[in-house]
Amino acid sequence: MRTHFFVLFLILITPVHATEQWVHAASPNPLTYTGFGDAIDVLDNWMVIGDPENDDQAIDGGAVHVYENSQGQWQLFDTLYADEADNFDEFGSAVAIERLHDTGEVWIMVSALGDDDTGSDRGAVYGFQMLENQPITYEVKFTGDTFSRDYGSSLALNYDYVEDISTYLWVLVIGDKSAVRYVDPNNPNGGTRATGDATIYKRSGGLPWEQEPIQGLVTLDNLGTNDQFAASVATDGIYVVAGAPFADNSALGNEGVDTGAVYVYVRSGITQTWSCCSTIRATQTTRGARFGFDVDVAKQFNDNVYIYAGAPFEEDLSGRRLGAAYVWSNGNLIQKFQPTVIVGGAGENFGTSVSANGDAYFGTTEFLVGAPLSEDYKGRIYQYTFNPDYNGSNDVFIERQQMVADNRNQMPWDLGQFGKNVVTDGLNHAASSESTYLGSHKSVYTKEAPIFKDGFD
């Protein structure tokens, strides 16, 4: 088993825009370039880190490192590998973790984009379970079909009470950004196209995982080849949100190319199916903005459901690729966010990653947005919180502070792209950093945030 080094957390606050430094908590050992940190997720005292280019079991066979927080330090608990790992399986391409807080039951979902079970490199998803005070065990494997191409390119996992059917459910969403979909031949662009697709599973009690039916998929018939539908996915158990960052907006003509879109599924408690899909598009965006590059959904203050989406390639009037993030609730645009610090000539790519939390066990008033190109690839993360002076006509969220990597001025992390991936559960924040120097390793940074119990109380 590999040993990882850890460091204590340092904080630096500046008077204007409060800027906090995150110290890297986990790095691969030996310090070689792998996929360490290409995917991350965090929940309570557990953090999972994808390492899809790991060679322990096979060339690029992949691995997932599971860390446990012990007295403020993240320590390696276990390393997971694909069953019968093969070369280029890329196990760890995407990860998701969820916990049933009252019993301690944990599920970890892991993608292996190069898995060959249903065809060459079509992908698969592995499910691991951990019961209280028990080791992690491999339990289930999800595979696509002959139409799959990148099965597991995105993952979302949630456990919550579903009021419509009066039960607690685990919900798993598996995205496949390159899946081939059959389009109604009566559609002018009928036939098959590699638009992307999403699959939804549920689990109740101790029953096996089962796929859930989806109605209304005809609403996706206008998607085009390489729109990358479900390149990012999120769920709160009632809604499923899927980003399609390369979708075109035909209403804008040539300016609508690759502006992106977000699609929303809703659970129907009566029919026990999912209804697809309402469409959200960014307003006043620019060609190639890639809205939906990353998405999240969370129930926050007053039990309102908020949908978050990034558009990291959106440009300003001067053609600078600053990026943007958007928040919706009840079908309405609530607020648009843009970076407040613009440093360097590389742009910001603000909105590359977005993360919010709706876990009632922790509660939260905040969400995070990554800007990995800030300061010429050093990277930056923005943290927003609910506006205590919100009166219905001003901004719902205000900027709380910004976070940067503690080693951003040291080679190789001066090109670290801190914030390329960012996650939060309301208690912990985590982000990955990827040096662009040849042969350099990657790191994952953490910051434990205060618990905001019961939302805004």
From TrEMBL:
Lineage, broadest ranks: Bacteria, Pseudomonadati, Pseudomonadota, Gammaproteobacteria, Lysobacterales
Full protein name: FG-GAP repeat protein
Residue ranges of coiled coil: none
Assigned keywords, A-Z: Glycoprotein, Repeat, Signal
UniProt organism field: Marinicella litoralis
The UniProt record lists the keyword Iron: no
Signal peptide segment: 1-18
